[in-house]
Design brief:
Among the domains are: 73 residues, Ribbon (Hormone Receptor, Insulin-like Growth Factor Receptor 1, Chain A domain 2); 49 residues, no CATH class. It is built from three helices and 14 strands. It is elongated.
Length: 210
């Protein structure tokens, strides 16, 4: 048989096998090489070689990455991660580990507590205290000379055990400032005395000239 007929026959035979049934391109040694648009290429190492399979969803420990040429199943970085959104952000951990901010931990960090398979912040459940007084209305460190400024206030948790690691809540509002900065009364008196002294000095100079 001509070589092109042999190639065509071998391709048809490979395509009908279980390994190559969902592939666009298939290799006898490496399985799927190219997948249809909606499937993901999953490469599984077999000794020194890799074997490809086209899947609808990626298996545990892998995440789906869509590409222009082909979609792929890529491995999560952490071995303790069962499902991940990206290489470094885990969404579900394996048994015996707790999920906290995309990481799989053997124990929950300080300020958190285990809840099912996650670590939750104590601050989410802690009761909040009263708001502090509003701060002085300022803008760029000045309390006057502008039309509007800002002032803020804070509050923490009412539980003494959580106060040390729970962040303060803060809110800011706009406030009205005095457009003109008027000096205190003492300074105004000094300024007036200075003006009087200057006037008297001018009069004395004029008298001396005549």
């Amino acid at each position: 048989l001509p070589w092109h007929l042999i190639f065509l026959l071998s391709y048809v035979l490979l395509r009908d096998t279980d390994d190559c049934r969902s592939c666009l391109e298939c290799s006898r040694d490496n399985g799927c090489v190219r997948c249809p648009e909606r499937l993901f290429l999953f490469l599984q190492r077999d000794g020194m070689s890799q074997h490809g399979t086209c899947l609808l969803t990626c298996p545990a420990g892998h995440y789906e990455q869509k590409g222009k040429d082909m979609n792929r199943c890529l491995k999560c970085r952490s071995l303790d991660c069962e499902h991940c959104f990206s290489r470094d952000f885990c969404t579900k951990c394996k048994a015996g580990f707790q999920l906290y901010k995309g990481k799989c931990l053997s124990r929950c960090p300080l300020g958190t507590f285990p809840h099912h398979t996650d670590c939750l912040d104590h601050c989410l459940l802690a009761s909040l205290g009263e708001w502090s007084e509003w701060s002085m209305c300022q803008r760029d460190g000045a309390t006057c000379g502008y039309r509007w400024g800002k002032q803020s206030r804070t509050r923490g948790t009412s539980d003494n055990h959580t106060t040390s690691f729970c962040p303060l809540q803060a809110e800011t509002q706009r406030c009205k400032l005095k457009k003109r900065c008027t000096p205190p009364k003492k300074e105004r008196r000094k300024e007036r005395k200075g003006l009087v002294t200057v006037k008297l000095t001018k009069i004395n100079i004029c008298e001396f000239t005549f």
